[in-house]
Write a structure and sequence with these properties.
The chain has two domains: 20-145 and 280-328, Clavaminate synthase-like (Double-stranded beta-helix); 147-278, Double-stranded beta-helix, CATH 3.60.130.10. The protein is 26% helix and 26% strand. The protein is built from nine helices and 18 strands. The strands form five sheets. Strands 1-2-15-5-18-3 form a six-stranded mixed sheet. The protein has a four-stranded antiparallel sheet with strand order 4-16-7-14. Strands 9-10-8-13 form a four-stranded antiparallel sheet.
Length: 329
């Protein structure tokens, strides 16, 4: 059944129904069968709330999760032009399932919409909790429409032309061979040409890319404005002060592993991104995972994050339904 009034422990801003909780109609109902019964209701709920949490269903293995995600009618996507380390999870049901970002357990991953630092992104993203951490490890989420409204108008106007992402691949970032899934310079150049990415090769087989992408987008179905970028993640202010100082001393401004700029190439002030982060914090929804949980998000309507944790934790991810805005830039 679907019932937004079913109580479950979460922290959320007033008036926020994200995520809608969905529970079995009988003990032991398996997720794949439930998905066939609930698919239409889930898709409607995604457009209203931005995300659903399926809790209490039988999910015997990752292959069952893979089949559930694939049952929504779109092939599962490969993780291309990634910004964080992940590994593909082999399943008997096929490809398309990945580990969540493989950052150290003590680190937080701020709220973001998947691959919103590119001009191509998935519309749907699924998370499956295989093992719930005994302490922490939440996947916080936020309504991207509410974030857009929370951010001051003067900042929205400044970001409206887009955001310039600059990446320098080398020893301090994910290797370009892993990001592009190839060791061929020609294949990298062809991918960049198709994707509107300016690239240049540097000494010692290094690579620099520059791409202008959206900061604000319009959802193709609901027509609503959403805050849709990763300026606050890629900007140097996302680093701890000591780490930032070391990086700026080593590489200078132009050669930092990653950084963001306004569309005209001018620097984004730390104070502006502090206001963006405050808006994201104000709209954060958080709840503890339970083993077997599956969360499905509309990737444009809901951002996601990761909280630090202790002990074992395994959350896997799948993505589908590519969308983009190549005609805009």
């Amino acid at each position: 059944m679907i019932d937004t009034l079913i109580p479950f422990a979460r922290k959320a801003p007033a008036g926020c129904d994200l995520p809608m909780l969905i529970t079995p109609n009988r003990t032991g109902e398996d997720l794949l069968s439930a998905g066939q019964r609930l698919r239409h209701q889930i898709e409607e709920a995604l457009l209203v709330t931005g995300g659903v949490l399926l809790r209490g269903f039988d999910v015997p293995d990752v292959a069952a999760f893979q089949q559930f995600a694939a049952s929504f009618g779109h092939p599962l996507l490969k993780y291309e032009f990634g910004s964080t380390p992940r590994s593909e999870v082999a399943t008997s049901a096929g490809a398309g399932v990945y580990t969540s970002t493989e950052y150290p357990a003590h680190q937080s991953i701020p709220l973001h919409n998947e691959q919103s630092y590119t001009r191509d992104w998935p519309m749907k993203i699924w998370f499956h909790c295989v093992t719930a951490s005994p302490e922490g490890g939440e996947t916080p989420i936020a309504d991207s429409r509410a974030v857009y409204r929370q951010i001051p108008a003067r900042i929205r106007e400044r970001f409206a032309p887009g955001i310039l992402y600059v990446r320098n691949f080398g020893e301090m970032d994910v290797p370009w061979q892993q990001v592009f899934n190839t060791s061929s310079h020609a294949e990298v150049e062809a991918y960049c040409a198709r994707s509107g990415i300016a690239c240049e090769w540097k000494e010692d087989d290094g690579l620099r890319t520059r791409q202008l992408c959206q900061a604000i987008e319009t959802h193709p179905v609901t027509g609503e404005k959403v805050w849709f970028n990763q300026a606050h993640l890629f900007h140097i202010s996302a680093r701890a002060p000591e780490e930032r100082e070391v990086l700026e001393d080593l590489y200078g401004t132009e050669n930092l592993p990653r950084n963001t700029y306004f569309a005209d190439g001018s620097p984004i002030g730390d104070d502006i991104l502090a206001e963006v982060r405050a808006a994201l914090d104000a709209q954060t929804v958080s709840f503890l995972w339970e083993a077997g949980d599956v969360m499905m998000l509309d990737n444009m309507l809901a951002a996601h994050a990761r909280a630090p944790f202790k002990g074992p934790r395994k959350v896997v991810v799948a993505m589908a339904e590519p969308h983009g805005n190549h005609g805009r830039f």
